[in-house]
TrEMBL record:
GO MF, one example: nucleic acid binding
Lineage, uppermost ranks: unclassified sequences, metagenomes, organismal metagenomes
Name the UniProt record assigns to this protein: RNase H type-1 domain-containing protein
SUPFAM superfamilies assigned to the protein according to its UniProt record, in alphabetical order: Ribonuclease H-like
Span of domain RNase H type-1: 26-157
Length: 171
């Protein structure tokens, strides 16, 4: 009997527990991750967004959003890029994750909007938000948003390449 107890105890303390995802009020099949970046702030800016279905990437996009934009402007553009696709795909319930605490807290109503140049983007996002049956916002750390970050930075590289080609034609 004592030997069996030792085996059981050893088993539980040496084997890692398996994490089983909980389904319920806070679980979502669809997750949107977004990001934006600006080199210079303000400067050239890019946005990226990724949609996941049950943790599997199903869509992504990136966009160059301007030559003299702030990081917060680019973050909102990333959010809009993803929300637009989610609505286009008729997704009704969505968890939105981003590493911009400002954007997440403004969308949750925890921070006031103070920047005039963000107002049109914010109002567009709030308008889109109303078209979902359920939407929640969650701030995540940068290391958990690497794919959207990669896309936002790639949008800048795309524009650099276009600029390089254009300057080559002017010579």
């Amino acid at each position: 009997m004592m030997q069996n107890m030792q085996k059981i105890t050893r088993y539980f303390f040496t084997n890692s527990p398996k994490i089983i995802p909980a389904y319920g009020e806070n679980s979502f099949e669809y997750v949107l991750k977004f990001d934006g970046c600006s080199k210079g702030n303000p400067g050239p800016a890019g946005a990226g967004a990724v949609l996941y279905y049950n943790d599997r990437e199903i869509w992504y996009n990136r966009k160059f959003v301007g030559r003299k934009e702030t990081n917060n402007y680019a973050e909102y553009c990333g959010l809009l890029l993803g929300l637009n696709e989610a609505l286009r795909e008729n997704i009704r319930e969505l968890k939105v994750c981003g590493d911009s605490q400002l954007v997440i807290k403004q969308m949750k109503g925890e921070y006031k909007l103070k920047s005039e140049n963000l107002y049109p983007l914010y109002t567009e996002a709030k308008s889109m938000e109303k078209q979902f049956d359920k939407i929640v916002y969650e701030h995540i750390y940068r290391q958990y948003n690497s794919r959207a970050d990669e896309l936002a930075n790639a949008a800048l590289e795309d524009q650099d390449f276009v600029d390089e080609i254009k300057s080559g034609f002017k010579s």
